[in-house]
Design brief:
Blueprint lengths: L2 H12 L2 E7 L2 E9 L11 H14 L6 E4 L5 E3 L1 H9 L4 E7 L11
Parallel strand pairs: 3-5
Antiparallel strand pairs: 1-2, 2-5, 3-4
Helix pairs in contact: 2-3
Length: 109
C-alpha cells in the first residue's frame, strides 16, 4: 500500500461533522461527508480522471476542496475530484458546503 495513500485515508477517517466559517459575507461549512451523499450534475473526462487519480496518489492530498450546495448536496465544483476519490475507494471526503441560493455571488472555477 502506498504510504501517502494510507495517511490520506486516515485524515478522512479521523473526524466527522461540520465546522461553520465565514469569508466576507459568504457563510460556509467544512464537513467530512459520506461520498455517496454528494450528487453529481455532469459527466467527467476519463483522461482527466486518470491524471487526477495519479496526482492524488502521488501527492497524498487534494489541492482544492470539493464544493457542494449545503441543501441539495449537488457538486458545484470538484466533479473530477469526487469521481477520482470515489474510484480510489474513499468512503468519506472533505466538502465545502455553501448556500448557493442565498449567495448569488459565489463564483466557482
Amino acid at each position: 500500500m502506498n504510504p501517502k495513500r494510507s495517511r490520506f485515508q486516515r485524515l478522512f477517517q479521523e473526524n466527522e461533522g461540520a465546522e461553520s466559517k465565514q469569508y466576507g459575507k459568504t457563510q460556509f461549512k467544512l464537513a467530512l461527508l459520506p461520498i455517496e451523499q454528494l450528487k453529481p450534475h455532469e459527466k467527467g473526462s476519463p483522461l482527466y480522471l486518470e491524471l487526477l487519480k495519479r496526482e492524488i496518489l502521488t501527492d497524498g492530498a487534494l489541492k482544492y476542496p470539493i464544493v457542494a450546495d449545503e441543501k441539495s448536496l449537488v457538486i458545484l465544483d470538484g466533479m473530477h475530484r469526487w469521481l477520482a476519490l470515489q474510484s480510489l475507494g474513499y468512503k468519506k471526503i472533505p466538502v465545502l458546503l455553501v448556500n448557493a441560493l442565498e449567495n448569488p455571488k459565489i463564483r466557482i472555477g
